[in-house]
Each structure stands twice: as structure tokens, then as C-alpha cells.
Amino acid sequence: MKRILVVVIIGCFTSLLLAQHGGGDFEKLMKYQQEPNFDNLDVALEYYQKLMGTEEKEMAQIALANLHMIAMNNVIDEMKNDLDSLSLGSKFQLANLLLENNRFAESIEIYDNLNSTSPKWSCPWRHKGEALYELNNLEDAEIATLKAIETREDHYDAYIQLAKIQMELGKYKTALETMEKGSKYVEADIEGEVDSDEVKALKLQIENLINNN
């Protein structure tokens, strides 16, 4: 349903742009929308990128944004249709792309697949917990995030995520204990995914909740 809505919005918006600009400027965008192949995409991208340094910059920006949106949705649809043939890494990256674009339910379907085929892989569990949290499914989010820690004890960002979920569930003391356990694994966050200031703010928030309840 969401996919159909995106297509309708893009179609309506493109029609409005065509009406305002006489059609010619958006011809290549329409061409790619009607025939979404890489040749048409390359032609359109090159055309609008060249217009970025001209008085048509605003039009080109809108066209490029629409092109990237359409292309992304096309790639996602194609990969989802061929999900069984994808490598584990590609499935994970596809699920992450869906997660980053707030397509939480769709991402969870793929994380479920990864959990079934690779149950000891911690990252899909952690990311599924994030998607479930965004859907306000806190109980299942806690279960998934606990599984991420069970499968990798030093998964630092999973501890922080778990503490946040437990705080939302009203488990304030448990959340603080989770943060204390996780603090032993700060060095494991080699990619710097967790902001130390946010961690301090979360701990302070939990402590205040404990003191006031």
C-alpha cells in the first residue's frame, strides 16, 4: 500500500511540475518513470546534473530527488522479489535500507528471514529490535535486543538500545543495570555508532526516573 502511495505522489507531483514548466524540462524524468531502465536513468541524471549550475537549479534539484526516489524504490522492489537468491550480506543491507527509510514492517520481514537462517548473527537481531521499537512494539523489541546481546556479549550499541527500551517499558532499575553491564564494552564500538553524549543523557534520564518513582 505504501509503495502504491509513493508512486501516486510522484506521479501527481511530476504532472504538476510539467504543467508549471511546459513539459520539456521534466521530459527525461517522465521517460525514466515510464521506462525505468538504467540507460534512461543515466541520461536523466547527466542532464539534470548539468543544470545544477544554471538558473534551472531548483528544477534540477527536484528532478534529481525524484529520480533517486524512483530508482531506490525500483531497486528495493527488485531485490525483494529476488530475496531468496540474495546473499546474507545483501539481505541485511536491504533490510537496513528499509529501516533507514522508515519502512519498518518490511525491514522486520527480512530480519526475520536472517534470524531464521543465521540465528547466531547478532546484528540482524539488534536492528530488528530497533525497527520494532519504532513501531512501538516494545515487548518484542526487548526480546530481539536481548537476543542480540545473547549472540554477542560485547554488542555495545545493543545494550544502549536495550536500556532505552526497558526505560520505555518502565523497567528503570533494569535499564540502569543494562547500561552498567554495557559500559564494559564501550571499546567494542569500533565504528563509533553510539554517541557518548546521548549515552550520558540516557543514563541521567533513567536515574531521574528511578529517583522520582
- The topology string of helices and strands comes to HHHHHHHHHHH
Q: Give the helix proportion (percent range).
A: over 70%
CATH homologous superfamily annotation of the largest domain: Tetratricopeptide repeat domain
Identify the overall geometry: elongated
- CATH classification class of the largest domain: Mainly Alpha
How is this fold's topology laid out?
Blueprint (H helix, E strand, L loop, with lengths): L1 H20 L5 H8 L3 H13 L6 H25 L6 H13 L3 H14 L4 H13 L3 H14 L4 H13 L3 H11 L13 H16 L2
Helix pairs in contact: 2-3, 3-4, 5-6, 6-7, 7-8, 7-9, 8-9, 9-10, 10-11
Give keywords.
mainly alpha; 213 residues; Serine Threonine Protein Phosphatase 5, Tetratricopeptide repeat; 11 helices
Written overview of the protein:
- The protein is built from eleven helices and no strands.
- The chain is mostly helical and 213 residues long.
- It folds into two domains: 2-80, no CATH class; 87-211, Alpha Horseshoe (Serine Threonine Protein Phosphatase 5, Tetratricopeptide repeat), CATH 1.25.40.
- Helix 6 (104-117) runs antiparallel to helix 7 (122-134), helix 7 packs parallel to helix 9 (156-168) and helix 8 (138-151) packs antiparallel against helix 9 (156-168).
- The chain is elongated and about 60 Å long.
In short:
With 213 residues, the chain is an all-alpha fold.
